[in-house]
Amino acid sequence: DSEGVANQLDPALASDDPPTARFDVDAGIFPRVSTHNINAVALYEKGPVQARVAYNWRSAFQLTPRDVIFPFASIYQPATGQLDASLFFDITDNITIGVQGVNLTDDVTVTEQSINAAGLRAPRNFFRNDRRYTAVLRANF
User: What is the DSSP string of 30-65?
Assistant: First the structure.
């Protein structure tokens, strides 16, 4: 269990309006720490073949307790996961070829912003990281 700091706004910005008031629902959260993380990896290596599949998932977490733009509220990232894989083949003792894939599930990174003191959140940003494939030729001397 971890505890962060309260989301106290600059007194010069505070007013009676809910958007700039302190959001107590965001208080005490430690930024960038998920409650749950899962990392599962399967490896295969026999003879000239090496294969790897990895899935990483984390539950929602607070990115920052106070954004730099109005209404200066907390920013969160909902739960997200990513699947990566690779396959390599040793042609000789010194030469290996292979392929790697990153973000095979084509996960989109989403951020949300707190919009009221009750903890209601609304979408803020969407980032498409795309799938990435790499062909590899490795030489060892």
Answer: -TT--S-EEEEEEEEEETTEEEEEEEEEE--EEEES
| Nearest-angstrom CA–CA distance, 110 and 5 | 24
pLDDT of residue 2: 55
Q: What is the pLDDT of residues 35-47, one digit of tens each?
A: 899 999 999 999 9
Concatenated DSSP letters for 81-104? EEEEEEEEEESSSSEEEEEEEE-T
Tell me the CB-side half-sphere exposure of residue 99, using CA atoms within 13 A. Answer: 4
Residue 56 forms beta bridges with which residues? 39, 82
For residues 18 and 117, the answer to whether their CB atoms sit within 8 Å is: yes
Structure tokens at 116: 């009221």
Percent of the chain past pLDDT 90, that is, above it, reads 48
CA 62 to chain centre: 11
Query: Phi and psi for 25 in degrees, rounded to 5?
Result: -65, -25
For residue 53, which amino acid is it? V
pTM, full prediction: 0.72
